[in-house]
Design goal:
It is a single chain. The protein is of the alpha/beta class and about 240 residues long. It folds into 2 domains: about 5-15 and about 100-235, HAD superfamily/HAD-like (Rossmann fold, 3-Layer(aba) Sandwich); about 20-100, DNA polymerase, domain 1 (Orthogonal Bundle). About 50% of the residues lie in helices and about 10% in strands. The protein has helices at about 20-35, 45-55, 65-70, 80-100, 105-115, 130-140, 155, 165-175, 185-195, 225-235; strands spanning about 5-10, 120-125, 150, 180-185, 200-205, 220. α1 packs across α2, α1 packs antiparallel against α4 (about 80-100) and α5 (about 105-115) packs parallel to α10 (about 225-235).
Length: about 240
């Protein structure tokens, strides 16, 4: 039994909520709105083109819908100001954020129980600071984390899978890697670099990376936060 666990860090996307499921629903809502306001193309065709835009320019690019319209034949929205179509897409996407963004069902009760322990509870995530912080607030999970233990790559200048991101987080909160557990869904982006720093790693096998194989093995492979609480109790004497 390991008795020296002091901190637990989590990834956000596809660890605390289903990024894949939410993104699909939000993009479909955006395309439906653009078609409502005058885009004359089948939804599936527009979605395929939008997916290519996101793949080519990254999910953090801020002008997906502008690029989308540049790629579509102008005749498919003749008579409609392109700014209206872009605004419709953006509005529908953000409305979906309000209505559809939610944590995996086991996550809030699991984090609530962890918040009652002495463990420091943090975040190590890649992405833009505003987007990642917004997710924590919209998901209603921020209150369960130690405020000084939230690390977003955009704020630090180090991104996954660079192990320095994980070391920086440990140094900032004053714990050693071997005293820290990291929970993530992506073996290549989460588990391999955390292993390289000597952290105890948990691969939560769900979301789009559930079957992905990394270069190293996680200390634990679990399906949800219920199993995580069991591991913490049995192997680390954390009574959550």
């Amino acid at each position: 039994m390991r008795m020296n666990l002091k901190a637990i860090f989590f990834d956000i996307d596809d660890t605390l909520f289903s990024t894949t499921d939410f993104a699909d629903k939000a993009r479909r809502a955006a395309v439906a709105a653009m078609r409502h306001y005058g885009l004359r193309l089948p939804a599936d065709q527009v979605l395929r083109e939008l997916s290519e835009v996101i793949s080519e320019f990254s999910s953090n690019y801020e002008h997906h819908f502008d690029k989308l319209l540049l790629r579509l034949p102008r005749r498919t929205f003749d008579g409609v100001n392109s700014a209206i179509l872009v605004a419709a897409g953006v509005h529908a996407y953000h409305t979906a954020k309000i209505n559809l963004l939610s944590a995996y069902p086991d996550v809030p009760p699991g984090l609530l129980r962890l918040s009652r322990t002495a463990l420091l509870r943090g975040i190590i995530t890649s992405g833009l600071q505003q987007k990642q912080a917004d997710k924590l607030l919209r998901l209603g999970l921020y209150e369960y984390f130690t405020p000084t233990a939230i690390f977003i790559s955009d704020q630090i200048g180090i991104s996954k899978p660079n192990p320095k991101l994980y070391q920086r987080a440990c140094d900032e909160v004053g714990v050693e890697a071997k005293e820290t557990l990291y929970v993530g869904d992506n073996p290549l982006q989460d588990i391999d670099p955390a292993n390289a720093m000597g952290m105890i790693t948990v691969h939560v096998r769900r979301g789009r990376h559930g079957a992905l194989q990394g270069k190293t093995k996680a200390s634990y492979e679990l399906k949800d936060f219920k199993e995580l609480l069991t591991v913490l109790r049995k192997d680390f004497n954390v009574r959550a």
